[in-house]
Amino acid sequence: MLGTSLLGRLRRRDPGDAILRRAARLTLVASVVFYGCRYGAGSSTLATYGLFGTIAAGSFAQLPGPAPQRARLLVLSLPVVWALIAAGSLLAWSTWAAAGGMLVVGFVVAFAGVGNPRLVGLASAFQLFYILASFPPYQPDTLPERLGGVTLAVVLLAAAEVFLWPDPVPVSYRQRLAEAADGVAAFLDAAAEKLTDPHAAAGDPDGRRERAHDVVAAIELNRSPPAWAPTAAGAQDRALRICAAALREVLGEADRLAADAPPEPIPDLAAARLLRSCADTTRAVGRSLSPGAPAVTPADLDVAVGRAEAAYPVGDGQVRDAPDVPRLCRDATALALADQVRVFVVGSRVATGARLGGDDASSALFEYARRSPWTLYWWQFRSHLAPRSVHLHSSLRLAVALAIARVAAGVLQLTHGFWVLLATLTVLRTSAADTRTALRPAVLGTIIGAVVSGGVMVVVDDPIVYAVVLPVTLLLAFGVGRLLGPVWQQALFTVLLTVVFAQLSPEGWRLTEARLVDVLLGAVIGVFAGVAIWPRGAGHDLRHNATRYLAASADAVEQTVQSMLGDAPPPARALARVRRRMILIDSSYCQYHSERHDPHRQQVNWDAVLSAGHHVVPGAESLLRRNPPGCLAGWPGAAALLRDSAARLRSAYDALADEVAHGRTSDRAPVSTSCVDQLDRIRPLLGEADHQSVRHLVEVDRWLAGLADSLARIPLPAADESIGRSRRR
What we know:
Blueprint lengths: L1 H12 L4 H23 L3 H17 L6 H10 L1 H14 L3 H17 L8 H14 L9 H21 L9 H24 L8 H13 L17 H25 L10 H19 L10 H12 L14 H27 L21 H12 L5 H22 L6 H10 L4 H28 L3 H22 L1 H19 L5 H23 L4 H28 L7 H21 L13 H9 L1 H11 L9 H26 L13 H8 L8 H22 L6 H10 L1
Membrane topology: Multi-pass membrane protein
Family: Belongs to the YccS/YhfK family.
Pfam families: FUSC_2 (PF13515)
């Protein structure tokens, strides 16, 4: 009964047996490599580097994508592995030389994840290769054996990834994006039907709206596995992020259109025709994200937008009949929606690798797509060489901690000093709270494993016994241990190391004593670094970066309005500043989600805060394309109205920034963005200008109202929700 209960518990923790399959692959490859090198070739060096190469690449490396992609990454990483092992082997002659190399390697490997966060999955493995080679004995003549053992391990592991129990491929981000596009397109059809006939029940419009919101929520980056989320600096990943933002904007505009349905049917409404064209385009773009599908061009959508603009009521330039402001509102919203659909079209072309033509260059959002990948990575690195970059902090913290651990292990002349650095790497986290949390299972698990191993080694002194049980300990350490929790994983890993070194260099029970001392020393160094070097983690940097991001967004809004009034040039610099600030806050936000948070402290709803800023840049670019700078110059009434709206919006941004800086958000009054309310605001000005100017005023005021609405929608998380989220982490 106990065995059945334990098996059921393991199956519940490992749906699909992904962890057990991975452990089985690693066990088979490690056993073949170790037995072949240690007992077949009779080389301890080959066996050591072959086994630890398998463990580093198979357990410590967290690789993205399906099995063929992971195998390709493993093979392509071999030149870097060779360079790290060669550097470590050549610097092992001196403790201080090896520590200096550790400082450089630790920082460079960790900071490389800035350009492509998927490289973070290889960072720990790369560091382990250098760590293992940088310890005595100093034997540069054994470098061919070291490289041969690691190469054999990596190649066999790559083959096993493809041919031995391959993992099922999870739903990719492109598939989620395609599903979101289909859901949004269905809602656009329902919204178009509601515009032409408010009383029609177009196939359960409420159900379509609910599904659209559900599938769009599913494309948030924090809902995708880190290895599958499009977080790299490359053109395709950036395009996927822009596509997701465009879909969220399309859904928001569609909500406004559905809420502004006319009280009486208007069968031939231009906004409805444009909405149906947007629905067809959005659905086609979703299909184009599938592998091998043809790319979609914006030509058909541009034709539909041109027809809608031609039907846009502008009058004859003189004020004779009062302009139809509700219709202007609906048409302006439909055109803004179409602009976002066009962004989605161009973004999908970049994401699928299609070349951009002249008709695609409608937004500065995609200027990067014409740059080389190396230029994009350099921009990303340069953005993070800043005092508030959480990636810079984490990389420096890790490099300093590993260098100190290497010096300590060398000065104390520890026999298995690389265990000190391994313990430091295991314990150290991005915040002091996370480091303290990782300390307990590391120390407790090591003590349990050392006691068990020491007892076994006192009783059993025959290396053959340890050779026989090696596959069992491998499977337990990397399969069962991971499923049972950190304490068990650390304890079983300690037993595994004892079994391995009992065959390489038999030392009896003193081996477990050395393991315990090394882990305790490494844990102390990790805790010291975690507490002394930027201990507050990503949360502090996230609040600071968010404050600057919101301030930059407010500046961009004010300069955009001033540009429309003819008081300032186009806000190109202000919008570029917002994009730069966006890079830092995105990286802080991603790391924040990996940290432990105080369950008793009210948490900020960061998804809503970031979305409030994301509305500014694409909305301003869309607005400026249709309403040139100075279009409202010489209209005092409009200037007073828009300056008042911009000032109140600036105050709202400043208030939100102050709340974010202190780690809290408060309740906000809802802001109405309906055309009826907008008509009441504009009605006193209708006799002062022509229809064309009224159209510009409606579009600008509508944009400001939408931004205010996005700020008002930032909710206050419930206490039980914050506690539950923290416990899940």
